[in-house]
Amino acid sequence: MFNILLQSHSGSWAILVLLLVISYFAPKQKISLMIQRLFYLIMLGTGIGMLFILGFPLIYVLKGILAIVLIGVMEMIVGRRKRAESTKMLWIACIVLILVIISIGYNWI
Q1: CA distances (Å), 49 to each of 25, 26, 89, 108, in order?
Q2: Which DSSP category does 86 fall into?
Q3: Is 83 helix (H, G, I), strand (E, B) or coil?
Q4: Nearest CA to 19 among 42, 35, 38?
């Protein structure tokens, strides 16, 4: 069961990053944003499932909190892009958060 959740979780992260890029460079269309939000739910659901199986270790709870912050940053990037506002600092925060979350997920930290 854990392996199914893990593969779904890591796959949803990869697709989520691709959908963010698509949503950023094609701000007029809405389907990629809706699919992106669906993958937020898949990512959160599989992550919470793995937390239950692992017994809520503190480092993975921190990873979950950072992932929720990352979702907020991704939504702000897309929203500001649609309003033609600057997104430079949000992209920096997004990349840093992705690197930290991946590092925790693959036990590099």
Answers
A1: 33, 33, 32, 22
A2: -
A3: coil
A4: 35
